[in-house]
Amino acid sequence: MNSSQLKRAKRAARRRVLEARDAIDPAERARRSMLIATRCLALSELEAASTVMAFWSFGSEVETDPLLEGLHARGTRIALPRIVDAELEPRSWKPGDPTTFTSFGAQEPSDGHRIAPPEIDVVFTPAVVFDRSGRRVGYGGGFYDRFLPRTREDCARVAPAFDVQVLGDGQMLPAGAFDLRVDAIVTETRLIRCERTG
To answer: Which CATH number does 3-193 carry?
Structure first.
């Protein structure tokens, strides 16, 4: 598959899943998001994690407020990404700290101190659609594919997602050489462990 074919295939997968995700009723989305947060907070990867990078949800994404609150309540240092010169820069954040809206609708820390990627133990990794091997298709910016190699090799990559965002058995997403997989996908009904290949 050449570059233009790969882009078209990713665009089609993204569009199909976004339609399904957008169709979830907001009250139901909040209920499912709470279930996902509870499952995420129970992961063994978080038991020993001192620094966790999460993300501020927007649109019809899994709502991350419950996850952020749970991390803060247990004393975990939270990093949220800020976009600086087209790259993700982890910044310290806790509830009540000031944030700024981005052009695409999410929020990012207005200040906070920079956290070096090797200090992060777990990265909650967003995307639009996943397959069961951990491949992901995001929004097309490649931010996380550029960021994740800067973390430690043992840094866990965990994807919170609704069931509708995960392809069925045997279905695989189109992927290029620079597309990085996640280690686990956490939905409202299950935990999917994935074998990392990059």
So the answer is: 3.40.50.10420
